[in-house]
Amino acid sequence: MTTVLDSRLLNDVLRDILSPFDLPPVEDVATRRQLARTLLSGRDNGSFDGLALAYAVIAFCSSTEDGTTGVLDAVRDNADVLVLDGVSGGYVLAPCAQDDHMEFAKELHERLGGEVWMAVAWAPRRDLAVARATAEDVLRIASGRAPGVYELRNVLADFAVLRQPHVAERLTRMIEPVVAQQPLLDALRAFISEDGNRAAAARRLDIHRSTLDHRLRLVERLTGCRPTSPRALLTLSVALTAHSSPQVPLPHTH
């Protein structure tokens, strides 16, 4: 028969055993933010008991402050998710299996709607700083595209260029004459957005197809790349990314 003293002793023992695995309460926003900052900076020495062994790192930005608030609201009730937020962007760290990270990000984005861009990378805790850097670069590229969820495989060519500054510089110089002429820039962007479909690009710009063809020929003359060639069009697309890749408003992790 268990006595009251035995019950208290058992409770004390269980509390001592289990307390290292308790996560900070979900209401403790400041503690969770600091945990996220520590994990993303690579300063995790393995002493944070109770945290997941791997996370999906979602770097996000929004065209409005409401978008960031929406992200926070969407994960507020998930006690295992950590968030490091800024004014118009931030990071979400969600514990999940490697095969589930993209699905989690897409479900989160669907709940938000609006102009929110997300870049997701998955990694074990020891590699979260690398995952954060990857997600940041992917987000820089994605923020120049339609709102949605992106991962590395969606932007491989652009990503490779951004990681090679000397290549990015050469491509930037190549595309500058086009960027300086708005009609040519608009024509090229429309042509890229429509995957090289002339008729669709002309409709997008509300111009005659012959006008579009003329502008694309000027693009070729200025850059040496023929937009109607798939390989050259990819080069031009990456050059635009190198020229205009923005700095996304993410909070510091150090």
Folded structure, characterized:
By secondary structure, the chain is α+β, with helices and mostly antiparallel strands. The chain folds into 2 domains: about 130 residues, 2-Layer Sandwich (Alpha-Beta Plaits), CATH 3.30.70; about 80 residues, Arc Repressor Mutant, subunit A (Orthogonal Bundle), CATH 1.10.10.2840. Helix content is about 55%, strand content about 15%. It has 11 helices and 5 strands. A 5-stranded mixed β-sheet has the order 2-3-1-4-5. Helix 8 crosses helix 9 and helix 9 crosses helix 10. It is elongated and about 65 Å long. The termini are far apart.
CATH superfamily of the largest domain: Reverse transcriptase/Diguanylate cyclase domain
CATH architecture of the largest domain: 2-Layer Sandwich
* Shape by Cα distribution: elongated
Q: What string, H for helix and E for strand, traces the elements in order? A: HHEHEEHEHEHHHHHH
End-to-end gap: 55 Å
- pLDDT < 50 stretches: 10-26
DSSP helix fraction: 40-55%
Largest β sheet strand count, sense and barrel closure:
5 strands, mixed
Total number of domains: 2
Please tell me the overall pLDDT. Answer: 86
> What's the count of strands?
5
CATH names the topology of the largest domain as: Alpha-Beta Plaits
